[in-house]
Design goal:
By secondary structure, this protein is mainly β. Among the domains are: about 45-85 and about 180-210 and about 220-270, no CATH class; about 275-285 and about 320-395, Immunoglobulin-like, CATH 2.60.40. The chain contains 2 helices and 21 strands. The chain has helices at about 1-15, 135-140, and strands spanning about 45-55, 65-75, 80-85, 85-90, 180-185, 190, 200-205, 210-215, 220-230, 240-245, 250-255, 265-270, 275-285, 290-300, 305-315, 320-330, 340-345, 355-360, 365-370, 375-380, 385-395. The chain has a 6-stranded mixed beta sheet with strand order 12-9-8-17-20-19, with no helix packed on it. The chain has a 5-stranded mixed beta sheet with strand order 7-2-1-10-11, with no helix packed on it. It has a 4-stranded antiparallel beta sheet with strand order 13-16-21-18, with no helix packed on it. A hairpin with a 3-residue loop joins β8 (about 210-215) and β9 (about 220-230). The two termini are about 50 Å apart.
């Protein structure tokens, strides 16, 4: 703001001393006299534009209008009254050529270092950024006839020099498709030189949305109205551009446009839905015991008489087993049938010795939204209630510590 104010004061000074700050003198040489038409164009750094969207959902959720606006700002000192405006997201300095491979990949190999065989038995090890695998170091010692003495107590390798922080690139006006486009705005436009953003409609498109009530009760029991739609055919989509959302005449808020992965629909949230109550309840849990008492019956014979005795022995189990059962309850208090999607996280193992599986009573028909999220789709009639059962069994060796039990509430 300080820089803008300084720039504005300089510009005001020029306007006061020069009544025609943008006067241009052109010298023409022609083979003959007469009238001619001359078109002059120039480029200024004092004008810019950025995209913004509005998503207007009908009150019944069956129609969605998406509008693209251009917010134009200019401080050139000239009043642009009744001008014809073309907008572009192209970068004249950018080379629009396909990249090519410059070098072929080469894979090399370096032999292991030869163990030091000097008069001193103390070897100084200099730390590196990649770290040192203790197993490899020991293997190197065993392969040598010389014994290596451990480092002195309290020794620390020198800290690596910090890498320079790369400068953040300037925000660019790039469309998700990566193409440069130009849009011609209909009719004359007025853009005063006041440094404020003036909004003009670029294009609009009517879409066929799919409205769902989506809830992730583990994160938030509030259900949200989520609209999914295919990418518009004739409208550019700028990642990160602001998008204002409204339902009917009610404004629901403003956020940033997110571009989905390939072959996935766009998603827009239109605020909470009041007619659905959702709860998550832990029904039961079982934690492992490292030692288990088992009763065994043994028979023996004394003086020709058979007898039976029961003994309690302690058995060390081969595995530890955790079991967790939870229940998601959904109650539709509205008078409409609801299309509800329930989302929950997927618990997965990152080590082959740890096995994770659902319990037999887990509600089936879950689909994966991503590698981390599973979803259930329910058609919930009016004034009805449904439940989703979640069960999880974790098996792990009896030795060692598991990471991630705290997130599941099992520590």
């Amino acid at each position: 703001m300080t820089e803008l104010e300084t720039e504005w004061q300089k510009l005001k000074g020029k306007l006061e001393t020069n009544p025609n700050p943008s006067q241009v003198t052109i010298e023409l040489v022609t083979p003959r006299s007469g009238d001619m038409e001359v078109e002059v164009s120039y480029r200024t750094a004092q004008a810019r534009w950025k995209p913004s969207y509005e998503a207007r959902l009908s009150a019944d959720g069956k129609a969605l209008e998406l509008l693209l606006f251009a917010e134009v700002t200019q401080g050139s000192g000239e009043a642009w009254d009744g001008v014809q405006m073309d907008l572009s997201n192209s970068h004249p300095s950018r080379v629009q050529e396909m990249p090519t491979f410059k070098n072929l990949p080469r894979i090399g190999w370096n032999p292991p270092p030869v163990p030091f065989r000097g008069a001193s038995t103390t070897v100084e090890v200099i730390g590196s950024r990649a770290g040192i695998d203790s197993s490899d170091t020991k293997a190197g010692v065993n392969s040598s006839t010389e014994s290596l003495v451990s480092l002195p107590a309290g020794y620390r390798p020198p800290e690596p020099k910090p890498l320079p922080v790369p400068e953040a690139p300037a925000a660019s006006l790039d469309e998700a498709k990566g193409l440069a486009q130009t849009w011609h705005l209909e009719g004359p436009k007025d853009v005063p030189s006041d440094g404020d953003a003036h909004r003009f409609l670029v294009t609009s498109e009517n879409l066929e949305p799919r409205l769902q009530i989506v809830v992730a009760p583990r994160l938030d029991p509030t259900p949200y109205q989520l609209v999914r739609f295919v990418p518009p055919a004739r409208m550019p989509m700028f990642p990160g551009a602001s998008i204002l959302r409204s339902v009917g005449t009610m404004r629901m808020g403003q956020g940033s446009l997110s571009i989905p992965p390939p072959n996935q629909p766009f998603e827009l949230s239109f605020g909470p839905y009041q007619g659905l109550r959702v709860s998550l309840q832990r029904v039961s849990e079982k934690r492992p015991f490292r030692m288990t008492k088992v009763t065994e019956s043994r028979q023996y014979q004394k003086n020709g008489v058979k007898d039976q005795v029961k003994e309690e022995i302690i058995v060390h189990g081969a595995d530890r087993v955790w079991e967790l059962r939870e229940l998601i309850t959904l109650a539709n208090d509205s008078s409409d049938q609801l299309d509800v999607e329930v989302q929950d996280r997927i618990v997965a193992s990152v080590h082959e010795s740890v096995k994770i599986s659902p319990t037999p009573d887990t509600t089936p028909c879950a689909q994966a939204r991503s590698p981390f999220v599973q979803a259930w789709t329910l058609n919930l009639p009016a004034k009805s209630k449904q439940t989703i059962s979640l069960g999880l069994v974790i098996k792990a060796p009896k030795e060692g510590d598991l990471v991630g039990l705290k997130e599941l509430g099992l520590e």
